[in-house]
Amino acid sequence: MKICIDAGHYGKYNRSPAVAAYYESDMVWKLHLLQKKYLEQYEGVTVITTRPNQATDKGLFERGACSAGCDLFISDHSNAVGNGVNESVDYVAVYHLVDDTTTKVDDISKEIAERLAPVIAEVMGASQGGRTVTRKSDGDRNGDGIMNDNYYGVLHGARMVNTPGLILEHSFHTNTKMTNWLLNDANLDKLAKAEVEVLAAYFGLKKKGEATKTGLQATDLKNLSDEQVIAKVGALFTADQEKTGILASVSFAQFILESGYGKSELAQNANNCFGMKKSLSGNTWGGSSWDGSSIYTKQTKEQNPDGTYETITADFRKYPCVEDSIADHSAYLLGAKNGSELRYAGLKGCTDYKKAIQIIKDGGYATSLTYVEKLCSIIEKWNLTQYDVKSGGDTDVMYRVQVGAYSKKENADNQVKKLKSDGFDTYLIQVDGLYKVQVGAYSVKTNAENMIAKLKAKGYDCFITTKGGQAVSEASKKKSVEEIAKEIYHGQCSDSRWDTWGNGDTRVERLTAVGYDADEVQKAVNALF
Ligand SMILES: [Zn+2]
Fold it and tell me: Is the pLDDT of residue 211 over 70?
C-alpha cells in the first residue's frame, strides 16, 4: 500500500488577503507531513511526497506522475475566490478524476472523494459543507482521441500513471474564519488525523502494533437469559462510569435496548452493542477504541421525524470485544460535536438518569420518538441504578483541583483571596518547596472535573493532581476549635483529605498540619464527653 502526497505549492505562495500571516504553501507543507505521519501509523503503508522540501518547485504533471505505482495521489490546497477577502464563500471541495470508462482509478478516486468531503467539511466547520467536483480539460491532452482528460495538471499526471488522484481544497483562504482555522497547528493535526482515518477505513488499514485484546464476546451472551446477561455485564458499565463519568445505568439501558441483551445481529457478529456506525459525527471525536477500519455491513431501519420508517444499508463498527464497544460508545458521547458545540454537553458527571437520557436524546443520538421512555422503563424494570458509581467513592486516591503553584507565599495568598472572592472554597498546601493553591479534593474524578469546568468558566487556569501536601495553616483554618472538637467527637472530618481526624499522634499531626493547636482542640474534645 503506497500513497503519494503533494504539498500543493512551494516556497511562500498564495498569501491570504484575509489574514496576512497565512500562506497556502505553509499550510499544505505542514498538513501533508501530518498526513504522512498518521498514515505511517498503519501497517504496510508507505508514503512518498512530491517535494524534498518546501522550497523546491516542481511541475504539476511531474508531481502527479510521481505517484506511479501508488494506490492514491493527494494534492493539498486551500482555495481562493477572487482577489480580495470574501467571507461568504466557505466550502470544502474534493476534486476527483473525471469519468473514464477505460479504467477503474477514476471510480476509486470518486469514492474516496465522496467519503472525504463531508468529513473535512465537518472537521473544519465549513459553513457551506463539502462537495465533490471534477473538471475536464477542453483539449485531448493525451492524444487518445477521447475528450476525457483532467483539467488540473496534477490529476492529469496521476491519471497518466494510473493512480486514483485527488485535490483537497480545504475551504478558502479568502475567508477570514477559515484562514484563521488553518493557521492553527492543532486544527491541522485534527484535520490530518480525520482525513487519514477516512483513508484507513476505505483501504481497510490496520494500526501498527495493536495488541489482540481478550474480553467479553457478545457470543458468550447468546444462550443466557436476560437476568443472566445483566448479571454478567453490569460490572462493565460501573467500570465505564468510573472512567468516563457517564452514568452506568444509562449506558447499560442503551446496551439492553440497542443490542437486545447482547443478542442482536450486530452484537453477535461485531460485538457492536450500540449500533455505532462507521462514520459518526465525522469521527472527529477523540479517544475512540475502534481501530478505524473493521466494519460490519447490514441493513438498518430508521425512523423519520414523521414517524415513518425507512430501510438503509450501512457500515457499522466491528470490535474485538464488548468492553471496546462500551468504551467507544462512551468516547463518542463525550466527544461528539455539532459544529463547535459538544452534542451531549452536561452528560459527563450527570447523576440523574432521566436528565442524562434527555441530554442524549436532545443531542440527536436516536431517531426513535419514544427513546427516552424506553430507556427509563428499562432502568426501572431492572433497577439498573444499582450499577451506578456511588457518590463518595471508595478509593484512596483523591483528585485535587489545583489553581496555581507559587514560590512566594504572598502570590499564593493573593490567588487564594481572588478565588475566595469568586466563591471558591480554597486552601493552600506546601509541597516540593512550592505553595500550591487547591480548590477541593474529591474521591470521584468526575466531581473534580466539574470543579475544573467551573473554574475555567471564571477564567482560572487549573488541572487535576492526585498529589497532596502539607497544609499551610492560615489559608486552611476555617473552623473554630469547638467545631473541630465536635467533628472529632462525632468521628467526622471536614478536611477532604481525611475521613476522620484520627487518634493519638495522627490526630496531633493532622490538626497541626491544618494549623490548629492540638492541645487546645483536645481540651475542647474532652469537654464534650
Ligand atoms: Zn492551491
Answer: no
CA distance 190 to 284: 7
Q: What's the CA-to-centroid distance between 61 and ligand 1, angstroms? A: 15
Going by C-alpha positions, the residue among 452, 215, 222, 443 that lies closest to residue 328 is: 215
Q: How far apart are CA 265 and CA 499, in angstroms?
A: 49
Q: How far is the CA of 38 from the centre of ligand 1 (A)?
A: 22
Rounded mean pLDDT of the chain? 89
User: What pLDDT shows up at residue 394?
Assistant: 41
Q: Assess contact for 188 and 26: CB atoms under 8 A.
A: no
Cα 196 to ligand 1 centroid, rounded to whole Å: 20
C-alpha distances (whole Å) from 431 to each of 428, 445, 470, 510 are: 10, 22, 6, 16
Across 66-82, average pLDDT: 97
- Cα 19 to its chain centre, rounded Å, is 29
What grid cell was written down for 158? 496521476
pLDDT for residue 52: 95
Could you tell me where the DSSP H helices lie in 274-431? 322-335, 353-362, 371-382, 409-421
Is residue 477 classed exposed, middle or buried when 0-12, 13-18 and 19+ CB atoms within 10 A define those classes?
A: middle
For residue 218, give the C-alpha cell. Answer: 457478545
In order of their start, the domains of the chain are 2-203 (3.40.630.40), 218-387 (1.10.530.10), 399-475 (3.30.70.1070), 477-528 (no CATH)
CA 162 to centroid of ligand 1, rounded, Å = 23
Strand partners, 132: 94
Q: What is the pTM of this model?
A: 0.46
Q: How far is the CA of 396 from the centre of ligand 1 (A)?
A: 56
Spatial neighbors of 56 by CB under 8 A, at least 6 apart, are 10
Confidence check: pLDDT of 473 > 50: no
Degrees to nearest 5, angle at CA 415 with 409 and 419 = 145
Q: Whole-angstrom Cα distance, residue 416 to residue 430?
A: 13
Report the run of H or E that residue 479 belongs to, with start and end.
none
What confidence tens digit (pLDDT) does each residue in 446-471 have?
A: 888 888 998 998 888 888 887 666 55
Residues 76, 80, 84, 86: is their CA dihedral positive or negative?
A: negative
CB proximity list for 294: less than 8 A, separation 6 or greater: 270, 317, 318, 319
